[in-house]
């Protein structure tokens, strides 16, 4: 049959091997952007609308007419605007950016994304909480999702991780049970965004394999200060495959360049009301201000022959590989530098899957990972309305893709040609398979030899449930331990059934630490056993007793870059000091916020006025990292008389924040009843306190104040 001259032929390998750059995804999205500036209002069929305020009626006071196709189209579309939210990780915020390898990592993996240190691969990252619905709060006690889509030349690679390196269960078979237990309870849909309820603690106290992960979620890691100060982990052991086809086991880590730090519980709770969008807002604003988020990608590599040399099974997702045993090698850096244009189109419709891998990256037999390989595409069929969601702009690969999949809901691609099958001779045999190869080859699964009985069972090597929970506990600083004790006590206080509380305190906690069990037991009026109660197998054994990487304190920011500092002012403030402080703070990369009782310009003592950035109750102390009270008698007297002014300092003190006062500012400390400690600085001029202020804020909080702070009623 003669070829139709209007039919484009498949361009074949030349097009397939086209390379992309860091802008490829943004450029591709441009085709889908719709800008309304200067444009007429029209229906979806392109008809110009003359009146967007009134429906068509039979008379001015009469009934609306069926005939009004403009009204019906508008309402029809509106009525169907929502899609099901994600069954877990419903609340999220995302950003675009790029990943750049430090050097050629061909010795580890043939994946193109790791080869060229000059090449930037576009990425889209979605951070999320797990338990709550899409409208829940950002700062709840929960795991955070950290999902990255790399738009590589060889297809999309999704690293769908969390901010904690282990998981609650060992086998995907238990995932629906776990999620049913942690989600709001079925009879009343309470509580939202929290694990402090009966069904969660019932389940985890009957599933000792969850002990390690539950301990992580009871630590301050469960409410990161900012997404930029949060670690990320691929959790499972994956495989990297080099050009020779050699496989090595690998764990992925995201190490935040800004260090690690978290909120503290009272602060996190207050933020639910004061700023439910706290984490997403800060990420958005920082990116708008050019303060990009940066993370190093690191890998822990285990040679195949070393698979069994550990005290635990590297396929068990409730285990980490301690960094002392296998160091994390940094292989590249990710920068998040662009906010999405549209939340729904990008953040809500993005579809991640751990099954999206490229040649050079492969799976291990971790039974949790194996189950995930099924679950993500399956859930997305429902959530995104059929199997064509890969065509949604945010999900499309930047490299070309052709295959014989056809039709279904909302198909956008207009496939030309008649042969939607392979082999074919009608369309010249296209699209054709690509044999595996060291470069640009077709995907080839690692040739792992498997010779086994079909068996529905758990390997004995997964029997250790407590040794790494002990390792985590032993690696925490005293303050972190106190926070963990308080977290268990708080959560269990919300559990109505006494026998569940008792089970946690007497049957789970003593196997992690007798001290932990006793401390929590004391707060519940229960005696904890004086020695572990689990079997030797469950207690396991770890040659590693502590691991410094497990403490949040190990990677504190060390400087005041990106920190928010409140300057509390009122009429009569020493405006010279305010401007000097602002300049000094900004020179160090911090954000200085002038905060006043109202948004009216503040009259300085020298007659100059200062414009406030926010009001005391609009930018409360829970939203900043440190507070400075500049001098000026009238200003300080006004703040001291105001309940909000005094509360600001009391709450900042309670949350272990550094407070500095200049001149008369010191009087506010006295009126607010703030005891002086190493984190309370006073001087006459900014230079008297600035260096020490920066040093202390670099430590994130005044940790030595932790026990005293509990006495502050704020
Ligand atoms: Fe997920 N998980 N998960 N998960 N997960 C989903 O996929 C699932 C697990 C993670 O921002 C769902 O599209 C199973 C571990 C992130 O869009 C769902 C199991 C880790 C996100 C699903 C796990 C994760 C999800 C819900 C156990 C860390 C959000 C909506 C076998 C390594 C991605 C969706 C985003 C989302 C299933 C366990 C990370 C239902 C079956 C372990 C970051 O498919």
UniProtKB/TrEMBL annotation:
Heme binds at residues 86, 126, 175, 372, 376, 383. It comes from the Bacteria. It catalyses: 2 H2O2 = O2 + 2 H2O. Residues 22-42 have a biased composition (Basic and acidic residues). Its EC number is 1.11.1.6. Keywords: Heme, Hydrogen peroxide, Iron, Metal-binding, Oxidoreductase, Peroxidase. The keyword Oxidoreductase applies. GO terms for molecular function: catalase activity; heme binding; metal ion binding. Residues 1-21, 43-55 have a biased composition (Polar residues). InterPro entries: Catalase, Catalase_clade2, Catalase_clade2_helical, Catalase_core, Catalase_haem_BS, Catalase_immune_responsive, Catalase_large_C, Catalase_sf. Residues 42-430 form the Catalase core domain. GO terms for cellular component: cytosol. Residues 1-60, 421-445 are annotated as: Disordered. GO terms for biological process: hydrogen peroxide catabolic process; response to oxidative stress. Its cofactor is heme. The active site is at residues 89, 162. PANTHER family: CATALASE, CATALASE-B. Belongs to the catalase family. HPII subfamily. Decomposes hydrogen peroxide into water and oxygen; serves to protect cells from the toxic effects of hydrogen peroxide. This is Catalase.
């Amino acid at each position: 049959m003669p070829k139709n001259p209007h039919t484009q032929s498949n361009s074949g390998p030349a097009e397939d091997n086209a390379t992309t750059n860091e802008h490829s995804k943004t450029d591709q999205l441009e085709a889908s952007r719709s800008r309304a500036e200067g444009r007429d209002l029209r229906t979806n069929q392109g008809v110009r609308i003359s009146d967007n305020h009134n429906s068509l009626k039979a008379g001015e006071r009469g009934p609306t007419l069926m005939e009004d196709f403009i009204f019906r189209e508008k309402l029809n579309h509106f009525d169907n605007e929502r899609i099901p939210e994600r069954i877990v990780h419903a609340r999220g915020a995302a950003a675009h950016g790029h990943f750049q390898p430090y050097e050629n990592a061909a010795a580890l993996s043939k994946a193109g994304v790791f080869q060229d240190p000059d090449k930037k691969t576009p990425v889209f990252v979605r951070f999320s909480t797990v338990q709550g619905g899409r409208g829940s709060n950002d700062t709840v006690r929960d795991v955070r999702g950290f999902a990255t889509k790399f738009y590589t030349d060889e297809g999309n690679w999704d690293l769908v991780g969390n901010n904690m390196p282990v998981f609650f269960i060992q086998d995907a078979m238990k995932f629906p049970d776990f999620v049913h237990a942690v989600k709001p309870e079925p009879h009343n849909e309470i509580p939202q965004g929290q694990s402090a309820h009966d069904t969660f603690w019932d389940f985890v106290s009957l599933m000792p394999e969850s002990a390690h992960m539950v301990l992580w979620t009871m630590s301050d890691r469960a409410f990161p200060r900012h997404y930029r100060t949060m670690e990320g982990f691929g959790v499972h052991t994956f495989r990297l495959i080099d050009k020779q086809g050699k496989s090595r086991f690998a764990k992925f880590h995201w190490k935040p360049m800004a260090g690690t730090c978290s909120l503290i519980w009272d602060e996190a709770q207050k933020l639910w009301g004061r700023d439910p969008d706290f984490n997403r807002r800060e990420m958005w604003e920082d990116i708008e201000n050019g303060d990009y988020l940066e993370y190093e990608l690191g890998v822990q590599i285990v040679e195949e022959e070393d698979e069994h040399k550990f005290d635990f099974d590297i396929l068990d997702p409730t285990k980490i590989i301690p960094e002392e045993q296998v160091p994390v090698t940094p292989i590249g850096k990710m920068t998040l530098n662009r906010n999405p244009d549209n939340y729904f189109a990008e953040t809500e419709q993005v579809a991640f899957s751990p099954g999206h891998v490229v040649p050079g990256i492969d799976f291990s037999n971790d039974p949790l990972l194996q189950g995930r390989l099924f679950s993500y595409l399956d859930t997305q069929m429902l959530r995104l309305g059929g199997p064509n969601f890969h065509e949604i702009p945010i999900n499309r690969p930047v490299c070309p893709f052709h295959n014989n999949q056809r039709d279904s809901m909302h198909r956008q691609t207009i496939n030309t040609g008649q042969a939607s099958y392979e082999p074919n001779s009608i369309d010249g045999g296209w699209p054709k398979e690509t044999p595996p190869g060291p470069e640009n080859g077709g995907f080839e699964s690692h040739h792992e030899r498997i010779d086994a009985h079909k068996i529905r069972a758990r390997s004995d090597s997964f029997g250790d449930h407590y040794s790494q929970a002990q390792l985590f506990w032993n690696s925490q600083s005293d303050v972190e331990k106190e926070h963990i004790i308080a977290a268990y006590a708080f959560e269990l206080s919300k559990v109505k059934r006494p026998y569940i509380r008792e089970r946690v305190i007497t049957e789970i906690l003593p196997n992690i630490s007798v001290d932990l069990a006793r401390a929590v037991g004391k707060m519940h009026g229960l005696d904890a056993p004086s020695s572990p109660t689990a079997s030797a197998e469950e207690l396991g054994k770890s040659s590693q007793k502590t691991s410094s990487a497990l403490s949040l304190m190990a990677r504190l920011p060390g400087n005041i870059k990106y920190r928010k500092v409140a300057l509390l002012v009122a009429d009569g403030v020493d405006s010279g000091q305010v401007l000097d402080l602002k300049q000094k703070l900004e020179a160090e990369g911090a954000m200085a916020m002038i905060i006043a009782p109202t948004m009216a310009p503040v009259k300085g003592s020298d007659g100059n006025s200062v414009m406030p950035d926010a009001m005391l109750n609009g930018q409360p102390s829970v939203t900043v990292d440190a507070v400075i009270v500049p001098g000026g008698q009238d200003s300080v007297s006004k703040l001291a008389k105001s309940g909000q002014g005094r509360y600001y300092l009391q709450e900042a003190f309670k949350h272990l924040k550094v407070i500095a006062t200049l001149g008369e500012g010191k009087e506010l400390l006295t009126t607010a009843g703030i005891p002086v400690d190493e984190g309370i600085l006073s001087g006459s001029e900014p230079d008297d306190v600035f260096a020490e202020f920066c040093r202390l804020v670099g430590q994130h909080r005044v940790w030595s104040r932790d026990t005293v702070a509990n006495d502050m009623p704020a």
